[in-house]
Description:
By secondary structure, this protein is mainly α. The protein has helices spanning 33-53, 74-86, 97-108, 113-120, 125-131, 133-151, and strands at 2-3, 5-9, 15-19, 27-28. The strands form two sheets. The protein has a two-stranded antiparallel ribbon with strand order 1-4. Strands 2-3 form a two-stranded antiparallel ribbon. A hairpin with a 5-residue loop joins strand 2 and strand 3.
Amino acid sequence: MTIRRSLRRTSTGGLIHLPTKTRASERRIALPAECLRSLKQHKERQHKERETAGSGWQDGGLVFTTPSGRPLDPANLTRRFRTFLDRPGLRRIRFHDLRHSTATLLLEQGVDLVVIKELLGHAHIGVTAGVYAHVRLRLQRQAIDTLGHALSQEDDPDGPPTTVVVR
């Protein structure tokens, strides 16, 4: 996927395409195979929408659009996302929280912070490290607990070690 620009609301309430906030925000990122399959299906549906709209289609080179090719209004996207969450009774989160969930899952899977920084388009590693510090601290605690269990000489894996062998 290539990210080249952003969509922002103007002071008059309209939507405008602008360059990304930073050079780091303009990037190419790989997508999982399942995501690519979904995007191909979406492209087929969008092609039908384009045919239906005919000369009313406004091609802006966007992946997700209204049925007439115009940019999706972020407020409408938020409303639809809430509907999707409400149907099965899921906890309400912001659409932007999906970005945080992805980064958290990647961190928990051991993906390097530099790679996550690049995927998110952060200009500086300090931003990524600061936002996800709570995840790193939890992973550090888990790592220390794992180390403690590995070093424990007791039969009770939940109790504190009485002796530790260090070689």
